[in-house]
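Hi support team,

I've been running sequence recovery on a batch of backbones for a student project. Most finish fine, but this one hangs at about 90% for roughly twenty minutes before it completes. I'm not sure whether the input is malformed or the queue is just slow. I've pasted the structure tokens below so you can try to reproduce it. Let me know if you need the job ID as well.

Thanks,
M.K.
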């Protein structure tokens, strides 16, 4: 009886122990679109001047409201505790946190009051207070090193003397019953928006609030069309600003932005670079001696190698800092003592962190692992902060020692949800592509992978064409979400992909369906030899250039069971006449359709429509001005007229990307149903 009671007690304890194990540990489940939407999207980490805190942004999307919200979070680098710092009203957003130089105030942008304005929060306590009350929205917040100024951009009419004039003209346009516009220049629309006559200018405003002053007047954009948000900065004394601007008269044909400087005490802006290629992202060294910036050498080419350059302010001399680094420098920050620069770079489909010495020019790897972005450094130079992500984990904030490179995770926004989901880390594979080049790809195995089984395959083709599938958690083209229904996913980085030297990038230009096509086909050849792959069930597809390649494949092989083409270029000649950034096709195809007709005809997928046999899903948005809607319409017409099984998913309210949550859910439902029809 004693033994029986002991046995019962043991069984009870065992049951309690098993019950204590989390459901995630007992059985994980495949990733769903609802999971992806529910994840917090971490970005923009900013370290305080004392190195104790990191402020960052968490964006969240809502399927029910089809909307988006964002708040600012705060992490202690000492305790690694995280808490939500701002509480925006429902449906509103806080973003772009920026520390005051003394670390006592955090400024940020918010649309709480109806438009995007500057707000500030004292770190000693209290509620957030609105600092700017301007009649237009602002963007691109920056705090001056002396703490006296705030800088931001605003969309204005170049001939207006003040912001009130811009606001009044906008109001008059809104009330007018006539919505027609008259254009006399190209680039009259861009991405998903028609040009409304306004320009982006940089303004400065006293940090405590007051009048905003335009420091980049004129009929030009700062930042320019080709560039990012980090295209202007303050000098250490806060008496000068550097910025990037393109003043060429034909912006549709020019990548030629230059670095300018303007005194904030009054005076005209002065251009300090004169190259024909793109110059941008200027940053002053902390000691004020240098301005570092990123440059591309060749004009008209937006995918040229990104080099770090140094401009010496005293002499005006310019020299390359990374002349032998054969990959693209990403975002960068100065070492606080001005002895070097930390930078990220896309290399081998990841993004390590490097340090380059200003005088010696030597480059060392600081953080070797991971896809790292949004780099920052503490005031004493000892700590790096950045975001890191992988195919099986969305971005979180990390810190690393600037000396050893040892990295640890700081934020944990998605840990609980990720614990429930079965995702396999991406496996890097390599094959010999065209002309013996090594071609890297990511291979993702499905949830519950069983090596004794054979699985169908989905081949994802990236856009660009000078793009790369990084080891990253893409919220639109999510490799894990494609694998979730039980597919092996292969994401090749063929010719044109940055990360394997500039020669590899260059070899796609004027050869859109050549070596890159061979690279992809040889990758598929290799994948078909894997013991867990069913080579009779393979589909392929992609977006933008990836859509073009799906269209090219459609006319050149019937090896795939199905294809899907999202926003894909189909007819190169008609696409040229309706796209916006003309420097791109004129570089890629060495001229216009009337000066180099042979090349446009050679690489245009529509010329091979007679060969179309593979079932194809076509997807396109009405507001896509990069690859206009007619490209999808022409493709669908050719498929239907020849009796090829095909469907057309049309979005009247989306552009080149599908951005609204419910539209995204429909996108994945439609694509997954299409794949299942031919792969299951």
């Amino acid at each position: 009886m004693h033994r029986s009671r002991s046995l019962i007690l043991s069984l009870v304890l065992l049951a309690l122990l098993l019950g204590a194990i989390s459901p995630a540990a007992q059985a994980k489940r495949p990733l769903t679109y609802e999971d992806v939407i529910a994840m917090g999207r971490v970005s923009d980490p900013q370290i305080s001047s004392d190195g104790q805190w990191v402020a960052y942004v968490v964006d969240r999307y809502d399927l029910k409201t089809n909307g988006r919200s964002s708040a600012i979070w705060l992490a202690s680098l000492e305790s690694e505790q995280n808490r939500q710092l701002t509480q925006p009203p429902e449906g509103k957003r806080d973003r772009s946190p920026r520390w005051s130089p003394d670390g006592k105030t955090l400024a940020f942008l918010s649309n709480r009051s109806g438009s995007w304005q500057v707000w500030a929060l004292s770190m000693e306590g209290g509620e957030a207070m609105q600092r700017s009350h301007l009649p237009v929205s602002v963007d691109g917040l920056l705090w001056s090193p002396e703490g006296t100024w705030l800088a931001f951009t605003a969309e204005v009419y170049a001939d207006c003397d003040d912001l009130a004039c811009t606001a009044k003209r906008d109001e008059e346009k809104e009330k007018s019953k006539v919505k027609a516009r008259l254009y006399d220049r190209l680039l009259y629309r861009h991405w998903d928006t028609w040009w409304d006559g306004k320009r982006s200018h940089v303004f400065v405003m006293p940090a405590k609030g007051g009048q905003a002053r335009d420091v980049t007047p004129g009929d030009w954009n700062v930042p320019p069309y080709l560039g990012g948000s980090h295209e202007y900065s303050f000098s250490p004394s806060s008496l000068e600003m550097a910025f990037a601007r393109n003043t060429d008269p034909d912006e549709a044909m020019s990548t030629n932005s230059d670095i300018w400087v303007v005194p904030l005490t009054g005076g005209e802006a002065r251009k300090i670079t004169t190259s024909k290629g793109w110059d941008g992202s200027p940053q002053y060294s902390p000691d004020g001696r240098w301005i570092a910036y990123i440059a591309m050498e060749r004009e008209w080419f937006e995918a040229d190698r990104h080099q770090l350059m140094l401009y010496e302010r005293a002499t005006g001399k310019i020299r390359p800092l990374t002349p032998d680094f054969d990959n693209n420098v990403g975002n960068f920050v100065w070492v606080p003592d001005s002895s070097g620069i930390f930078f990220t770079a896309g290399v081998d489909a990841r993004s390590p962190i490097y340090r380059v010495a200003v005088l010696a020019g030597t480059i060392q790897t600081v953080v070797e692992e991971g896809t790292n972005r949004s780099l920052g450094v503490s005031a004493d130079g000892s700590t790096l902060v950045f975001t890191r992500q992988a195919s099986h984990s969305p971005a979180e904030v990390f810190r690393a020692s600037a000396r050893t490179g040892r990295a640890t995770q700081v934020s944990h926004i998605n840990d609980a949800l990720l614990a429930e989901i079965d995702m396999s880390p991406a496996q890097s594979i390599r094959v010999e592509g065209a002309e013996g080049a090594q071609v890297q790809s990511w291979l993702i195995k499905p949830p519950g992978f069983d090596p004794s089984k054979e699985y169908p395959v989905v081949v994802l083709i990236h856009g660009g064409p000078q793009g790369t599938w990084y080891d990253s958690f893409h919220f639109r083209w999510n490799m894990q979400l494609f694998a979730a229904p039980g597919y092996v996913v292969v994401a090749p980085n063929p010719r044109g992909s940055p990360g394997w030297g500039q020669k590899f990038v260059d070899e796609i230009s004027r050869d859109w369906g050549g070596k890159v096509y061979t690279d992809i086909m040889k990758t598929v050849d290799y994948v078909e030899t894997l013991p867990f792959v069913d080579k009779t069930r393979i589909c392929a597809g992609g977006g933008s250039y990836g859509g073009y390649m799906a269209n090219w494949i459609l006319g050149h092989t019937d090896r795939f069971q199905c294809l899907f083409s999202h926003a894909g270029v189909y007819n190169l000649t008609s696409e040229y006449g309706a796209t916006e950034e003309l420097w791109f096709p004129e570089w890629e195809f060495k001229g216009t359709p009337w000066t180099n007709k042979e090349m446009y005809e050679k690489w245009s997928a529509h010329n091979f429509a007679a060969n179309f046999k593979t079932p194809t899903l076509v997807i396109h948005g009405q507001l896509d001005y990069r690859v206009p809607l007619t490209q999808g319409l022409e493709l669908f017409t050719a498929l239907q007229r020849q009796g090829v099984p095909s469907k057309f998913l049309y979005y009247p309210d989306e552009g080149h990307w599908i951005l609204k949550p419910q539209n995204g859910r429909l996108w994945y439902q439609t694509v997954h149903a299409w794949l299942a029809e031919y792969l299951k």
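--
Follow-up from support: It reproduced on our side and the slowdown came from queue contention, not your input. The first strand starts at residue 41 and ends at 47. No action needed from you.
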